[in-house]
Amino acid sequence: MRRSPEGGGTPAAADLARIARHDWFYVGGDYVAEPDGTYLRGQMYVERFTPADRRHALPVVMIHGGAQTATNFVATADGRPGWLHDFLRAGYEVLLVDQPERGRSGHALPAGAPAPFFRYSAERIEAMFTAPERARLWPQAERHDQWPGRGVRGDPAFERFFASQVEQLADRDEIERLSRDGGVALLDAIGPAILLTHSQSGPIGWTVADARPGLVKAILAVEPNGPPFRDVKFLGPPDGGAPDWFDFEEGDARRWGLTRLPMTFDPPAETPADLAPVPLPPPAPDLAPGLQPSGSRRRLVNLAGVPILILTGEASYHAPYDHCTSAFLDWAGVPHEFVRLQDRGLPGNGHMMMLERNSREIAELMIGWLAERLYDAD
Question: What is the pLDDT of residue 36?
């Protein structure tokens, strides 16, 4: 039975943890010389919340997705306390970041002009995030029922969310590089941590763990950017069962499989061509095909020892293809757990699950998972 509880607007005091420390700082960045002076580029904003009742040594670093900022984790689309507060109540210190070249991390102005940006339209946000059940671009979309409202323009929860959208760099390779470097700089400053990534920041979790395997103690990968190698393009719901609702976008997206940047494979992969992707058939009619490396296995050695949870919502556009990301990790010898939320009694979620009606229950699932796997490391 699907539950559709109404969200409130003002958090009750019992929903909020008492804070012992709340501060902010910046990490990373390099000085660059421009014709009119010297500037800082690539710095990353970090906001830290330490609960008075801290019960875990490992902090949780939450990294937002594309065209978003850390506001995603502070409160839901209808104003309830967000994942930040759920983890604080569970006794975790939480650090929120704005990715470099985004939000409070600022923007570089090479030669006095901003780098090329792009942003998402209201139409895209409605179809992909807040009201996919209306557009029905993939088979699972019609099951979406967890957004706190109608999910379209004029709805208060939609307006609150859409107003929070920001521009991001058009160069996705540069986004990944800057955010990896910012994540590495943060862990070098604070020590071991748990990473919680979402969507576009999924590859950042993989690359930071690859660069600092001793400092990443777990990864909560919420619908990480995928599928491997190439993006899926949604064409609309299947007609009469014909598999015509998807296609592949042109060109390589994540040429190293999970990422745009090189990763540490054993045996080494000198170029993306060494992975030689071949078709991965879909395991069910409502799932998309993918691409899988061929030839001898190459292990992602720096990820193999990190506990990893991949979470996917029932109605999200990730529902048709996150199995491909899981399959790549299997191929690369990386133990992990792939969980579809409906299999844990949490149906109807879209991509922005941290903003939806059952956001707290999803946070509790992750917190419980961490308790089972990190009891001897925290």
Answer: 81
Domain layout of the chain by residue ranges: 13-373
- For the chain, the straight-line distance linking the first and the last C-alpha, in angstroms and rounded, comes to 37
Max CA distance (Å), the chain:
63
Q: For residue 9, what pLDDT is reported?
A: 47
Pseudo-torsion of CA 164, 168, 174, 177, nearest 10°? 0
Residue 50's DSSP bridge partners are 21
Known active-site residue 199: yes
- pLDDT, tens only, 134-148: 999 999 999 999 999
Going through 14-162 in order, the beta strands assigned E by DSSP cover 19-27, 30-34, 37-41, 44-51, 60-63, 94-98, 117-118
pLDDT at position 377: 56
Is residue 149's pLDDT more than 50?
Answer: yes
The candidate with the shortest Cα–Cα distance to 102, out of 31, 46, 30, is 46
Residue with tokens 């029932």: 314
DSSP, collapsed to helix, strand or coil, labels residue 352 as coil
For residues 304 and 193, what is the distance between their CA atoms, to the nearest angstrom?
17
* Cα–Cα distance for residue pair 27/185, rounded to 1 Å: 6
Tens-digit pLDDT profile for residues 229-287: 999 999 887 664 545 788 888 888 999 999 999 999 999 999 999 999 999 999 998 99
Whole-model pTM: value is 0.94
- The alpha-helical segments, DSSP class H, found in 284-340 are 322-331
Question: Which of 47, 48, 50, 56 is CA-nearest to residue 19?
Answer: 50
How would residue 160 be classed by pLDDT, with cut points 50, 70 and 90? very high
User: Model confidence over 328-362: pLDDT tens digits?
Assistant: 999 999 999 999 999 999 999 999 999 999 999 99
**Token pair listed for 93:** 């210190």
Q: Which of 105, 179, 199, 359 is catalytic?
A: 199
Nearest to 175, CA basis, from 101, 65, 114:
101
State both tokens at 306.
Answer: 């990190």
Helix orientation angle between 202-211 and 172-190, rounded to the nearest 10 degrees: 50
- Looking at 3.40.50.1820, 3.90.1110.10, 3.40.190.10, 3.40.140.10, the CATH number of the domain 13-373 comes to 3.40.50.1820
Total residue length of the chain: 378
